[in-house]
Fold each of these.
Amino acid sequence: MNENASIPDLDDLFDPAFIAEPYATFARLREASPVHWNEKFGLWVITGYDEVVWLLRHHELFSSAVTRASASPPYPPVDEGDRALFDEFKTFRSDQLVEQDRPAHLEQRSVVHPYFTPTAMEAWRPFVREAVHEILDEIQPRGRMDVLPDLAASLPVRVIAQMMDVPYEHRDRLRKMADAILYINRGESHRLRPLIEGVRGIVEYAAPFVEGRIEEPGDDIISVLAGGEREGVFTRHQVLVNVGLLLFAGHETTMNLICNGLLAFIRHGDQWDRLRADPAGMTRLATEECLRYDPPVKSTQRIASEHVEIGDQTIRAGDRIRWIMAAANRDPAVFDDPDRFDIGRQPNPHLSFGSGIHYCLGVALARMEGQEVFRALAERFEAFELEAERVEYQPSIQFRSLKSLPVTWQETL
Amino acid sequence: MSRRLHIEIDHGRCVGNAMCVATEPDVFAHNENRQSEAVNPEAGSPGRILLAAESCPTAAITVEDADTGERLFPPGSGS
């Protein structure tokens, strides 16, 4: 049998049953072949932990400039007449930091990296903690919330608006643009229209701020990017696109961390009780387990720069690759009892922030937001109950995004 | 004479982000697993070594004064 043969029922990455519950399929894929050719999408699907780490640490073999390199039409197909929007979107996306290879990537990352180090981010912890409690103070008397809009989307927009040093009252506008950009890598045929609206919106919104901070820089993240333009590292378009990337990347991923994590706690009451017994002491490890167990991002792409042997497969130059951290995070070769949600798990070398030179820039911020949210929830609430019979996920290959998470609770007295 | 530094890299944490190698290439290099090693701690400038430690996104690098044992990074009590 051809080892590259497709496994039809495991290849439909937009199948509703797979979107709803992907982990059993990921396990079957990993057992069948951790490096698997997906016939339906014409790409490699990598599900083994060691294979994913090896791939991510060999950036010279696997390019991140996926959008620029890809000549494929949008898949799943988009509405007739939206193809011009696809080209516009590609221009936007290919200027993002995450789509650069070395040497440009190192030059650009070096501009923004110092802003996001663990030490630098720790200075933001009091702001994040206060923001979490402010949001919860407002919600708590209601007795119910939809965690997604009320808490999980509200927090990262507050934080990024402060880091960008834009007016407080612009938060709703930022939130709308960030929400529109959530259509990246989704399956709906109309997705390009809201996506482009969001992309144009952020570029238009950011332009005057960037202009102003080229002249008069502050200590905010827009000034950091503008400084990169002054030094000749970024073009103006790259600065604007990366303002958009920071807004979006900090929004969707944190939302998913909070929602997916809280859902895991609702479904595993024993682990919630464990966190509640020592919120300040347990929240760091608990956040790592939330990140591993049901990660905000399921998968990301690369494109092979040359022929590469990996496992018993040969990936050819130009082949597209989707590496699935959500699958690697449950590889039994690395994690004992990987399907168990265990907030004391240690070590927990999950791949939810990737690995190698593109390792998540915002990792320290994401961790801190998760830690502060789970800690505050455990301090303030005795137990949450799901207010829906079942939850639904957005049809995305890339993100593990709930559509909503309505809950009620008992308060801690 | 400049300070002699003792550098420890926790390979349970190191993800091969390579910012340390970019910051102080005289000291840090990747091994065959693409994880960082302090291959030549005597070679670099103490200032750049501390910057390299601070730049690590997973806080995998610990720096101590080799003579006194004083913890220089991460800040906090010594070992």
Amino acid sequence: MSATTTTTALPGPAKNPVVSRALGRRRHRLNRLIEALCVIATIIGILLLASILLTLIWRGAGGLSIAVFTQTTRPPGSNGGLLNAIVGTLIQTGIGTLIGTPIGLMVGTYLAEYGRNSPMANAVRFVSDVLLSAPSILIGLFIYQICVEPFGGFSGIAGCLALAVIVIPIVVRTTEDMLRLIAPSLREAAVALGAPKWKVIVLVCYRAAKDGIVTGILLAVARIAGETAPLLFTSLGNLNWSISLARPMASLPVTIYQYAGSAFDDWVQLAWVGALLITVGVLATNILARVALRGRRTS
Amino acid sequence: MQQAIAASPAVQPRHRRYDVGDAIFALLARSSGAFVLVLLGSLILSLFVGGLPAFRHFGLGFVFSTDWDPVKQIFGAAVSVYGTLITSVLALMLAVPLAFGIAFYLTELAPEWLRRPVGTSIELLAAVPSIIYGMWGFFVIVPIMSQYIQPFVIDRLDGIPVLQDLFAGPPFGTGILTASIILAVMVIPFIAATMRDVFDTVPAVFKESAYGLGCTTWEVMRSIVLPYTRASVVGGIMLGLGRALGETMAVTFVIGNTDRISSSLFGPGNTIASIVALEFPESPAGSLKLSSLLALGFILFVISFIVLAISRILLKPRLKVG
């Protein structure tokens, strides 16, 4: 659609100066109205974020104490903490990232360096994008089907696998984007020195794209740390202390889910503390990722 | 450029000793690519196979049946499919105008120094975990809905033929409309960020020529930017729809959970994702109920797959889907 064809739709110059001035006023009034509405929309957006953060601080900060970090979850009324949930989230997020990152990195490498625009690469890219936006609850059901039911029980490792599936497409996307940004002259210089392709990729391209790849991993960590739905069917949650990957494992989001819906005031309070912790963690990781990328994406 | 390097005959023979490393690395990359295909394939297959007993038992009627009776072991998908679609569509109706306003502000109106902080705040809204939206919705939005908005609307619309039914029922605060509002808040950042990136792809010359003709900002947006980016804007909206369809935790908190279709938007309902999350703990392995839940998951996957595929096709010429 070219500019010349569309501008003909605009009101043309009126012959009568009075009419044309009135028309101009009307156009500018409409413009001001819409600009004001846009400013209001943006303010609403920012107020929503502020409302969520303030609610979390207001409800959660009061419940913060040493016990939250040193005690495990306990029956209502006995001053429990969230230790097992925090540790469970750290373990599952960590292992999920460790499993998903290498796969995602290799897939991104394949797309940027090997497949490029071949039919196979396009298929992989499409599927990876579908996985990126696929409902996470379905990933939970999938891991339940292949990993929980056949092996006879919920387990921490199943939770890790579900999270790893979510990590892969995020890392794929950023890795491919970043590898494609690298100047061809850099690769040519390495090839001219006699380096084989894999050394060019590992020693030159990965290094040049490091910031971007790290950003992708951080974004993936931020995303899976707060995931609840896939863990409901895989690691299930555990109110007792357990760091065994073969048994059900607690996690902050699932504990929040269980506690927030309960009828006990101290559990609801702990749910808010957990919500505050997870949100601060996720947003801090996110901001860190953006800072890491800032030097790169100057456009 | 890459092909030129790979095909360069002068490089290959002299470094034959490295071919092993190259072959291994290439194999690793290619098999990782294939692995992603297998992953999605097995995801679809596992949901389908898991749902097969339900599909077999109820036939095609499963999709259109509104029954959900665990006692009689009769299950149907219609109520949750209806809930999924209505909440997502309502959410889009609320989110699209707001997201458009934000994108318009960020690309054309905001002063340069404000663009980054405001843009980042909107993007951070997308990073907040969905369970937090659920709690926020349940403890903040639900009371507002039940104390102010719902009684006011029910009172005002009383006696108006169609509207009074659409907004009828006791003001519990939870329900389809509340779920849609939470979903709208959750998808606004996705749609706004995509729209902003798409608007930024319009060549400055086009806009400048329109401004030169004396167009106002809104006229430039309506007559230059929107026609130029129409397909991608729809693609961004579809991306938001894809997110809304599969959202689980936030909806589960506020939708009210019932197994029948309510004619009122204030009435309770459920979505595929919320019924799966809630009923799963009471569904023993191998039961018909679990199979029905997996069949629901399969239906949800098919719906989201179609929406995401359309979104990608529309966005592809302009942007990478992010």
